[in-house]
Amino acid sequence: MDAVFDLDALLSAEEREWQQRARAFAQERLLPVIEEDFEAGHFRREFVKELGDSGFLGMHLQGYGCAGAGAVSYGLVCLELEAADSGWRTFVSVQGSLAMSAIHKYGSEEQKQQWLPGMAAGDLVGCFALTEPQGGSDPAGMTTTARRDGDGWVIDGAKRWIGLASLADVAVVWAKVDDPSFAGGDGGRAVRGFLVPTSTPGFTATPIDGKLSMRASVQCDVALEGVRVGDDAILPGAKGLSGPFGCLNEARYGIVWGAMGAARSCLEAAISRSVDREVFGKPIGANQLIQAKLADMFLEVEKGILLALHLGRLKERGALTPAQISVGKLNSVREALAIAHEARAILGGDGITNAWPVMRHAANLESVRTYEGTDEIHQLILGRELTGLNAF
């Protein structure tokens, strides 16, 4: 498959090295256990340190023990990890693109020194507490509050679908504040970010059971009941909704690449099965209908990777816009799901078993489709960009 489309020719030696390192980690560490872990709903905490040792955590950030790699290198790592399982790319995104990016972008020097080196090394885990039980698409409507109390703050509220929360050492908690002097930004929306050690009394994270998707990763309900923090917990550079949105765009960028990894894995499974499975005396891959399906799937994988590469080059130049990220997120996940469904059909009945990764990828991609902005949210972002009219 790689020989048909020579992606390597478009990459630097450093970018190829990052990709190969991530592919080796995925093949040697993740793939041998991922079907078992998905079935058992088990997250391997021991892999966190190994990801840190490989340089993948916060790899696109500068300083504080981070690798300082380029946007394309980071994207390629996301692609290779998600080719194994969306849950592990999600871990790298939550840790690096959400929690670490929030601290790196908006934190004080003391906050950066306190948390980032340990998070980059995989010794500390962070989570990003934005989404709430009533919905995640309208963060301006959040009900979690932080009220002034003496020389500190008391946070009350609830969050849902918070990745890593039960494993995390620190939570980036977004809340509405009652002190106008601390509100700032975004049309008066008084949203601020707080760094809350998860050992703080009143912070409770409960893993969500019953998931049929992302089973090898951890998402939680978070309760915040009288959680008391000092002024030094506030992220000084994040005022208003531009704070969390700046981090969400980092995570969305990783999904543009990552979803294409899941799509590639499904396509590879379909190609392998089409060569090995014989019906009516010949491999099914010798039939025109199957070859047409494989060709169409291949086209979408390669177009998606080229789009991701274009966005990565824009990001490295500092020219990437939120609307362009929405193009990538919407396209990559939509096409990856279509490829997973087509691959499942080519595999026949075996496609629903864990002998092949396709059904697992399809289930995981349903979650990827929802988080960091649903299809509908990204369609509205693009509609606003095209018409100048806000339909939210």
Beta-strand content estimate: 15-25%
What Rg, in angstroms, do the CA atoms define?
Answer: 21 Å
Order of helices and strands: HHHHHEEEEEEEEHEEHHHH
CATH superfamily of the largest domain: Butyryl-CoA Dehydrogenase, subunit A, domain 3
Total helical elements: 10
The biggest sheet amounts to: 8 strands, mixed
Which fold does the CATH topology of the largest domain refer to?
Butyryl-CoA Dehydrogenase, subunit A, domain 3
InterPro entries: Acyl-CoA_DH_CS, Acyl-CoA_Oxase/DH_mid-dom, Acyl-CoA_Oxase/DH_mid-dom_sf, AcylCo_DH-like_C, AcylCo_DH/oxidase_C, AcylCoA_DH/ox_N, AcylCoA_DH/ox_N_sf, AcylCoA_DH/oxidase_NM_dom_sf
Catalytic activity: glutaryl-CoA + oxidized [electron-transfer flavoprotein] + 2 H(+) = (2E)-butenoyl-CoA + reduced [electron-transfer flavoprotein] + CO2
Enzyme class: oxidoreductase
EC number: 1.3.8.6
